[in-house]
Amino acid sequence: MESVCVLGAGSTKYGRLDDSIVDITVQASADAIDSAGIEPGDIKAGYISNVFGIADKQVHLGPVIMSNLGISDKPSLSIESACGSGSVSFREAYANVAAGFYDCLLVAGTEKVTHTGTEWTTTYFAYCSDFFHEGSAGVSFPGLFASMARAYLTEFDATEEDFAQVAVKNHNNGILNPKAHLRKKITIDDVMSSAVVASPLKLYDCCPFSDGASAVILCTEEFAKKVGGDYIRVTGSGRGGSPAALQGREHITTIPSTVLASKAAYKMAGITAKDVDFAEVHDCFTIAEVVDTEDLGFFEKGKGVEAVREGKTTLNSDISINPSGGLKSKGHPIGATGVGQVVEVYDQLTDQAGPRTVNDAHIGITHNFGATGASCAVHVFESV
Amino acid sequence: MESVCVLGAGSTKYGRLDDSIVDITVQASADAIDSAGIEPGDIKAGYISNVFGIADKQVHLGPVIMSNLGISDKPSLSIESACGSGSVSFREAYANVAAGFYDCLLVAGTEKVTHTGTEWTTTYFAYCSDFFHEGSAGVSFPGLFASMARAYLTEFDATEEDFAQVAVKNHNNGILNPKAHLRKKITIDDVMSSAVVASPLKLYDCCPFSDGASAVILCTEEFAKKVGGDYIRVTGSGRGGSPAALQGREHITTIPSTVLASKAAYKMAGITAKDVDFAEVHDCFTIAEVVDTEDLGFFEKGKGVEAVREGKTTLNSDISINPSGGLKSKGHPIGATGVGQVVEVYDQLTDQAGPRTVNDAHIGITHNFGATGASCAVHVFESV
After folding, report:
1. What is the pTM (predicted TM-score) of this model?
2. How many residue pairs from chains A and B have C-beta atoms closer than 8 A?
3. Residue B27 lies in a domain
4. Residues from chain A contacting residue B74 (CB–CB below 8 Å)
5. Looking at the 3D structure of chain A, how many domains does it have?
6. Using alpha carbons only, how large is chain B's radius of gyration in Å?
């Protein structure tokens, strides 16, 4: 097995973007290529993650992106796993480099939906649930995560203010990230007084719909050394699944796929949760981050809220959770999100994170899931 | 590298289907599992290929399929490469088994679009072209392949009747395939007198819009031997790309990605085009099959029509092209097509093809592309 590295990273701003899905993907890819110090011709294939290219009238994105980069002869594909598309695409590219099929790949995630409006987006996003059992009953994702939040409030010593604190923390981080969608300081009162979306979740408990594209260059360590730029190692890669519909699960205050994926990734990397310096986790709703930090092994089940309350997950505390601002503040262009998490880890571990730097960090992880965690991938990265 | 095998295969009928996209995919998958003689729990991950799940309100198909098969803990993903999705998904699964990441995978392709009507389908399929340069100018796939056909007629010694002969041949094969969509004998006159879709292509030069799902079980040879059923080896896997828009290509009577993918696949398998006994090729339009058989190295450039005219590509002639009936007669459920080709090769090489059997066949290939060949994958299979 080859040692696999991230050699460069690029990203557009996340938010409401005017450029086309093709243009933003090419921008992020070109930035990643520049960051890596390579030529487009060094890339042997393109792994694109995207869910709703149809919203901008472009499916089969791979060849269009490769053609725009001037490497139309190179193969490409699109990978979709709902909101977890980016990390699943990263995982496939990782497997191909590790196996020795390619020495250098482009992994680009992208989404462009804000121009379609909230109704279109909410409806189509619901097609990512188990639609026969969930969406067709009128439940979309805020409702599903609200069920998880209500169960959590019932089972554990938690309050809605605890969830609100997750949003406050992630906005504090996002303010320090020039690429973030919502760069706005908020208070617990702001969250508590925002409109109820699906009780107990309020507007500020929810991540925004965002446009955006992120890209990284993945290569063998031999290739990275030859190029000579800053690189980090991918030391663990794990995947897992959960029953597609929330109703099929024994407990809804845990996400089985996160547990499976993180255990596999930690095992491959030869680490435990205690070794992780910072984590980019899937906080599509505030409740999700709380559940994630427990399922990833950072805190015991039911103790994630206590950790938030005590400030254990703020920047440069016990474990920095979502230094980028997370989905909540940085934004959530669903096909791009998982790749964007890798961009953040690359920036952190190569000293390019500026004021949001996690001090003395050597090990970072990404955790990204689709739907209510029906699919999940976790990756472990280490500085060289 | 592990020796990779196809251990089982299943498929729904192709055509207009009433069942949901989830149901048809589960049916094909369950058939493949039965055919392989394994239990669902033997499967370590699911590779799903699909383009327009939104047409049946189900994106993020992987976890829904895995949950319905009772293996919700196993990871899954969806892969899209337009009409070439199936073979690209197969390629990714192949790479993962070859690398030793998994010993047994489900590869399932699926599409459900006929209920949306021709206008929806034509419009959305056009999003698989380079939409900015092609679709937005009002050109959909019949127009693009008509351009290729017109160029071919101009450059080479060919007639519209030659193209028609491809349709006649593939219908002759499809009649022998109980899973085929259009099981109807046709004549050259039928083709020539059918409605003009985009001159010189007429209705009977075009494959139909189809629903359908196909699945195969991919595993290591060690796993296949332990199970003990019929299996075939995957001995070559190649991919390639072409400029996304037809206007970006130097010549439009050849598809560069086919040449790249087939050369790579033959090289890996240690064969030449002469060694191939039969081929399932991408005949979305009759002109495509002619161009394919040249680009795959079976005939010289410009001589593909002569081969058709002289009956060199009929069942059990020089080289049997599309014994299944091809996209033209068997049908083209776009996410399923590439996987369905593998089902045909499995049936042929394990003596399960009945009256359409290619006699004494030992080597078969699949050739499947997206759009006008912007993306392509070729695989070589050999009997044990």
Report:
1. 0.98
2. 205
3. yes
4. 241
5. 1
6. 19
